[in-house]
Amino acid sequence: xxxxxxxxxxxxxVKSVQDSEGYVNPIGFGFCRVDLGQGSGKxxxxxxxxxxxxxxxxxxxxxxxxxxxxxxxxxxxxPVTKELIKGALKKFxxxxxxxxxxNIDVLKLLKEEENLENFRxxxxxxxxxLQSVEATYLKLYALxxxxxxxxxxxLNGAFGVLPNVAWSGNxxxxxxxxxxxxxxxxxxxxxxxxxxxxxxxxxxxxIIPEDNTRILxxxxxxxxxxxxxxxxxxxxxxxxxxxxxxxxxxxxxGRISSSAIxxxxxxxxxxxxxxxxxxxxxxxxxxIGKNSLLGANSVCGIPLGDGCIIDAGxxxxxxxxxxxxxxxxxxxxxxxxxxxxxxxFKGVELSGANGVHFRQESETGKIVAFRSKREIKLxxxxx
Length: 383
Hints:
383 residues, 21% strand, 21% helix, UDP N-Acetylglucosamine Acyltransferase, domain 1, eight-stranded mixed beta sheet, 8 helices, Alpha-Beta Plaits, alpha/beta
C-alpha cells in the first residue's frame, strides 16, 4: 500500500476499514515479546511493552487492515513481520514526527529488531474463555495496569492455557527441559537460580508500580493483581492473588485471595485471610469496604462494608452464628436500616453491613457483634 500523506487521508482510511462488513473493534490489543519453551518451542509467557484496552481503535484498524481475520473469533494472535511493520508505519506517516503516539513508538522499536521470531500481535474481540498464552497475559496486564476493573474479565481457561514453569528472574524455564538437562547444567555450574514454580509470573516482573506503592517482597503479589497507588504490601504472611487487590490506599499484611477486593483506608492485619471464591464463600466474591480492619490471623468469609472490624484470631464465615444484643443492634441498624431486627444472625446475613465490630467472648467463645466505635485510619507517613 502507498504511503498515507495527510491526517484527513488517515481518518478516511480508518473509517473505510471500520465500515467494512463484519469489522469489530477489539477490546484489547498489543504487540508482545514471547518466551518459547526450551524443549517444546511453544509460547510459555508474554511481555507487553504497551497495552491498548478499549482505546486507540484507529491504531487497531491500521494493524487489522493488513491481516486476514475472522472477526467472529474471540481472540487472534499473529506473527510480527517486517512487512506488517513497514506497512503500518506507512499508514501512520502523518503522525510519525509527533510525540505521544505510543503504538507508533512500539512499531519503530520493532523495526530495529533483526529477528522477529519472538514477537506477536495479539487481539481480543470478545471477553470469553481464554485460548492462548498471549491473550491470557494481555488480560492479566489489563487488570494489573488498572485498565480493566477487578472481577470484570472472563479468566476461565487461564489455568489450562498457561504452562507450569520454573521462574528464574524474568525467565521461564520448562520443567521437562530442566529435568532432561539437570546433570549437564549442574556439572557445568549453569543450573539456574529458581525463584518459583508457577503458571503465573510475579507482578513486579511485568508492572512498574506507582511511586507511593510499596511491595517489600516480590513473591507476595501475583501478576493479574491490581494495586491502588499508596498500597503497602509487607513481607511475611501477606499475599495478593491474581484478579484481586486494592481500590484505595491500603495496608496489606495478610492474604487477599483471588477475586477479593480491599477498599480505601483498610488494613489487612498480619496473617489475616480474605477467602476467595474457591475457599468457602459459595462462589460469592468478597469486597472489604473503606476504613475497615482485619485483625491479625482473622478470617473473613463475607463481604464487609465501611468501618468494620474483625478482631484478631476471629473467623467470620457465611455460616458463623453471631449474637447481637438489642442495644447494639439498634446502633448497627442506624448505619444499616435494611437489616431485620433479631438477636442471632448467620454471617451471610450481615454481608456488606457497615460499622460492625466482630469479636469473640473470651469466657463463652461466642461470636458477638456490636457497633464499631472507631474509624480506622492508616498512618499517612507510611503511605
